[in-house]
């Protein structure tokens, strides 16, 4: 099977193998990566984290787990500009620096193996974690507790004071949603570093995961434009036009389609 097929095979398991699926994303960008070797090394990290946890009920160990990760050097990558390795799990495991989502995926796998209840939350701009039933969220970058006022402040820092906190921002994330978010992050990071082929690999994965938005089709269309593939660009622009509810965006998409050469037939 190809790495992409392995990726979807992980999602079809019951329960889905979230962490392993994220590693197959890494293989798409590094054909020499050995997933089994990474999983074997992860057992050592699991033991190191486990040995440092206090003797508490498992329902109270989520924050200590995140603090233990921080003690072992796991922290948010503050390198500017942010590099794709901040979202690739194999690189994050090696360098212990990454985006909140990458750190969160590692924490979720540790919590699964140690039977500590924890779920992901697709909070805008900064992935978060939650203990089911708790009245707070947890920052995967160190384990800080976040109550509604803290979440509101975090949202304002990311998007400005006009962004309102809503219940939608605090919903638990399903495995497909987390992996789609990871793919979008990688798409943007590879694009920012002018690696259009790598960005296209991620853009295709975003769409294959389903429930893609007009913005997702536009992102891939822009990559096809840079790679001088007008037929593929047209396909994605037409899909973005069908999905868009913004009348101004629809006008711009129609104009952009009008400037493309007619579809050519390849013999």
TrEMBL record:
Residues 39-183 form the Protein SirB1 N-terminal domain. Transmembrane segments: none annotated. It comes from the Bacteria. InterPro entries: SirB1_N (IPR032698). Coiled coil: none annotated. Belongs to the UPF0162 family. This is Protein SirB1 N-terminal domain-containing protein. It comes from Pseudomonas violetae.
């Amino acid at each position: 099977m190809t790495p992409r097929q392995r990726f979807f095979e992980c999602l079809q398991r019951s329960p889905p193998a979230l962490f392993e699926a994220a590693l197959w994303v890494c293989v798409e960008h590094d054909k020499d990566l050995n997933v089994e070797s990474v999983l074997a090394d992860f057992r050592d990290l699991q033991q190191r984290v486990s040995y440092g946890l206090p003797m508490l009920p498992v329902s109270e160990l989520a924050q200590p787990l995140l603090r233990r990760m921080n003690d072992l050097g796991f922290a948010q990558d503050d390198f500017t500009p942010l590099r794709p390795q901040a979202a690739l799990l194999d690189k994050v495991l090696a360098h212990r620096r990454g985006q909140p989502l990458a750190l969160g995926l590692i924490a979720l796998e540790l919590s699964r193996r140690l039977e500590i209840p924890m779920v992901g939350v697709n909070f805008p701009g900064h992935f978060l974690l939650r203990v089911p039933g708790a009245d707070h969220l947890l920052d995967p970058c160190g384990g800080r507790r976040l109550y509604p006022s803290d979440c509101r402040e975090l949202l304002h820092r990311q998007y400005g004071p006009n962004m309102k906190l809503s219940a939608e921002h605090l919903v638990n994330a399903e495995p497909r949603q987390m992996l789609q978010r990871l793919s979008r992050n990688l798409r943007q990071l590879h694009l920012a570093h002018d690696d259009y082929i790598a960005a296209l690999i991620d853009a295709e994965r975003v769409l294959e995961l389903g429930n893609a938005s007009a913005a997702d089709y536009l992102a891939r269309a822009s990559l096809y434009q840079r790679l001088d593939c007008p037929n593929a660009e047209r396909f994605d622009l037409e899909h973005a036009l069908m999905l868009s509810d913004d009348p101004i965006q629809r006008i711009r998409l129609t104009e952009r389609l009008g400037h493309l050469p007619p579809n050519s037939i390849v013999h």
